[in-house]
Design a protein that fits this description.
The structure is a single chain. The chain has no helices and 21 strands. It is mainly beta. It is rod-shaped, with a radius of gyration of 38 Å. The model has no long low-confidence stretch (mean pLDDT about 90).
Length: about 260
């Protein structure tokens, strides 16, 4: 009968140190000891008597008589046993692990000996839309003014002045935008949708309808995976619609909107 875990099958060996000898009485041990009785010293394969032939304390080994460069000397650490053993089943808990990070039911142990959260969250994220119609001059590239927010978890979207997304967390983001143009009295011949980063195009979608010659209403969309530095990078959506006369972007939360989220990496 055992109290606690039953001992597992193990193999034990004592640590050994070989010395490079010279004409000296002082040597340094690889392992600290309390006294000479914690190690067995052999010179030319003859065991030496502790405290008589040598003394030891900490990592300092002192011989009574000096060795020569031709001597063979080694020691066995009797106070240090190296054991190979498999821990008994269910005997290792979180307190026995040296890994850094939060150790609980929501984390897992990575190969680099750190705890990390499983999965992740796609934050920051946002959903904004155009409230009220916005006029588009014919064949003129115009920024869409998304002036209403459904959510903006990091307050990173400016919906009052510049109508842009400026994430303050670095990483990769998925961004997508859609707009609806209606109420025109002339055919739309072509239209483009742009995603700008810092004032320059990073994604574009274009539809050319000049050969069909019909259709007053159009839906433009653009999406891309972009990278943000988490400080100064910003993103905007522009539209260009050609086909005679001023047109309107129809404002509501389900036809003209801009949304995005940070990708879990």
């Amino acid at each position: 009968m055992y109290l606690g875990n039953q001992p597992a099958l193990s193999y034990t060996s004592f640590a050994k140190q070989d010395f490079t000898t010279s004409a000296t009485t002082s040597y340094t041990l690889d392992q600290p000891v309390a006294n000479a009785n914690e190690l067995a010293l052999f010179i030319n394969f003859v065991r030496q008597e502790p405290t008589t032939a040598y003394t030891a304390s900490g990592t300092t080994l002192t011989l009574t008589s000096a060795t020569s460069a031709s001597d063979d000397m080694y020691c066995v650490f009797l106070g240090k046993a190296v054991q190979t053993v498999n821990p008994p089943n269910a005997s290792v808990g979180l307190s026995q692990l040296t890994a850094t990070g939060t150790k609980d039911a929501t984390t897992f142990l990575r190969g680099d000996n750190t705890f990390a959260s499983a999965g992740g969250t796609n934050t920051p994220n946002f959903y904004v839309y155009r409230n009220g119609n916005q006029s588009l001059s014919n064949a003129t590239t115009t920024k869409i003014q998304f002036n209403a927010e459904t959510y903006d978890t990091a307050s990173a979207f400016d919906s009052t002045t510049n109508y842009r997304f400026t994430p303050q967390t670095s990483g990769k983001y998925f961004l997508t935008a859609t707009y609806f143009v209606g109420g025109s009295t002339a055919d739309v011949t072509e239209f483009q949708t742009y995603l700008y980063k810092n004032g320059s195009t990073v994604a574009k979608n274009e539809v050319d309808r000049r050969t069909s010659g019909n259709g007053y209403n159009v839906v433009g969309t653009v999406n891309a995976i972009v990278e943000a530095n988490g400080s100064s990078d910003y993103f905007e959506v522009y539209a260009r619609v050609a086909g005679g006369g001023t047109k309107n972007i129809i404002g509501n939360s389900y036809e003209t909107f801009f949304q995005g989220y940070k990708i879990i990496e």
